[in-house]
Amino acid sequence: MNIVVNNKWIGQRTIRPDGVDKVTGRAAFAADTAMPGMIWGKVLRSPHPHARIRGIDISKAERLPGVKAVVTSRDVVDFPLDKSVMLGIQDMRWMCRNVMARDKALFPGHPVAAVAATTEAIAARACELIEVDYEVQPFSIEIDDAIKPDAPILHELNKFEGKPSNIVGQLEHKKGDIEAGFKQADVIIERTFTTRPVHQGYIEPHACLISVTADGKTTIWSSSQGQFMVRAMTSMLTGIPQSDIRAIPAEIGGGFGGKTIVYLEPLATLLAKKSGRPVKMVMTREEVMRATGPTSGSKSTVKIGAKKDGTIVAAQGTFYLQAGAFPGSPIRGAAGCSFAPYDIANVLSVGYDVCSNRSKVAAYRAPGAPIGAYAVECVLDEVAESLNMDPLDFRLKNAAKQGTKAAHGPVFPRIGYIETLEAAKNSPHYSTPTGKLQGRGVASGFWFNAGGESSAQVNITEDGNVVVTTGHPDIGGSRAGIANVCAELLGIDYRRVSVIIGDTQTVGFSNLTGGSRVLFASSMVVTQATEKVINTLRERAAKVWEIDPEAVKWENGAAHPASPNAGQFEPLTLEDLAEKAPQQGGPIGAGVQLNTQGADGGFGTHICDVEVDIELGIARVIKYTAVQDVGRAVHPGYVEGQLQGGVAQGIGWALNEEYIYRSDGKVDNPGFLDYRMPVCSDLPMLDTILVEVPNPKHPQGVKGVGEVPLVPVMAAVANAIYRATGKRFYALPMSPPKVLEGLQEPVQQAAE
Amino acid sequence: MAKLHVSTTVNGEPLEFLCEPYETMLDTLRNQLALTGSKEGCASGDCGACSITLDDRLVCSCLMLAAEAEGHEIRTIEGMARGGRLHPLQEKFLEQAALQCGICTSGMLVASEALLAKNPEPSEEEVRFWLAGNLCRCTGYDKIVRAVLETAAEIREAAQ
Question: Is the ipTM of this complex over 0.90?
Answer without folding.
Answer: yes
